[in-house]
Write a structure and sequence with these properties.
heterodimer, A: 118 residues, alpha+beta, three-stranded mixed β-sheet, 2 helices, B: alpha/beta, Rossmann fold, 9 helices, 8 strands
């Protein structure tokens, strides 16, 4: 259900970088730990984009697996389930090496059709 | 007509984080500790505040009350003679399900920050979106009630990971429920090994002293050693050997 708020944040970010140009593609990197449902995000993106320079743009989502690192024992591993204790030493001082990103990587804009920012 | 690729590489929530940083600067300037209190609807946030806010050893506390609609919770807390500012999110897209940094920003002029040591922001009841949006808080606390099921940390890891204290509420109901408290504490530990856990009942007052002490410490005014009773909060906790009150 947080996909609505996230879609709004994506559209705002893309529009800010588009400089008034029409956006055709938004490339996003989404970490597994963000618990985003890709279809749901795409649905809300289309909805929120209406009436903005992102209207009709495609949302490309690159999913990034979750990778953790144990600070004391320095080992790293990948997780599927939310288990944040180190499987090697049992410690709890674990940091996320990858998987919590929610990055707008790039956008593709049309150069000629200049429209007012939405 | 040709297309150009524009490199962005920006966290989509950066705009929110920038405003949160501005809020934080305002709070820091007035030396106010800000706590973002979150939970599912009906877990007992307001009841747990009612239990402690009237008696915080002179710590000047205020509440920013976030709700989709209405001011029922504000009215409950105002009875304790603490300043309460209501923030309704219904103006947003069909009523935003969380507070974001900008909403909190709009409420700052109504908060008499110079007269506060501690500000508690009671977020909209929701285990999902509030975990994503920083509002300029110093600490994040969540309430998880035993009527919600032991599996909630696994289903909402984003929220459980975002918080440093988990208040396990409604423990007075344990005799009537098929609920395994050990299992819940284990699941919290799996998802957030560094979280503090306190078992409490807003109804009977069990464990509430631990919550009150945590708030006093958060506000930078730890209770004098003599006034520190052994908390019932720790009873489950000590038995499990898992929960701890953060110093």
């Amino acid at each position: 259900m947080h996909e609505l708020s996230l879609a709004t944040a994506i559209v705002n970010t893309a529009v800010r970088h588009a400089g008034g140009r029409r956006v055709r593609l938004v490339c996003l990197r989404v970490g597994a730990l963000r618990q985003v449902v890709p279809d749901s995000l795409a649905f809300y993106f289309d909805l929120i984009a209406r009436g903005t320079p992102c209207e009709g743009a495609r949302l490309e989502q690159e999913l990034v697996g979750a990778r953790l690192r144990c600070r004391p024992c320095a080992r790293a591993w990948e997780i599927e389930l939310p288990a944040f204790r180190c499987p090697f030493c049992g410690g709890g001082q674990v940091e996320v090496a990858a998987g919590d990103e929610f990055l707008v990587e790039s956008i593709e804009v049309e150069e000629d059709a200049c429209i007012a920012p939405g | 007509m040709h297309r150009t690729r524009v490199r962005v590489v920006e966290e989509a929530l950066d705009a929110n984080n920038t405003i949160a940083a501005a809020n934080r600067a305002d709070f820091d300037r007035h030396e106010v500790t800000v706590i973002n209190l979150m939970s599912a609807p009906g877990a007992g946030k307001t009841s747990l505040l009612e239990r402690v806010l009237g008696d915080l050893d002179g710590v000047r506390v205020g509440v920013l009350e976030g709700d989709v609609q209405g001011s029922l919770d504000s009215e409950r807390l105002a009875r304790l003679h603490v300043p309460v500012v209501q923030l309704n999110t219904a103006k947003g897209f069909g009523g935003e399900c969380h507070l974001d940094a900008n909403m909190v920003r709009t409420a700052i002029p109504s908060l008499a920050l110079a007269q506060l040591d501690l500000l508690i922001v009671e977020n909209v009841g929701n285990l999902v979106c509030p975990a994503e949006f920083r509002i300029g808080e110093d600490r994040r606390v969540m309430v998880c009630s035993v009527t919600e099921g032991e599996d909630k940390p696994l289903k909402y890891p984003l929220m459980f990971r975002a918080c440093e204290l988990v208040l396990v509420n409604k423990i007075d109901l344990l005799p009537y429920l098929e609920f395994d408290l050990d299992k819940l504490l284990y699941h919290i530990d799996q998802v957030n090994p560094q979280a503090c856990k306190l078992a409490v009942s807003a109804r009977t007052g069990e464990g509430i002293e631990g919550w009150r002490e945590w708030l006093l410490r958060a506000a930078g005014q730890p209770p004098a050693p003599g006034e520190r009773p052994t908390q019932a909060a720790g009873r489950y906790a000590e038995r499990q050997g898992r929960a701890r009150v953060q110093a």
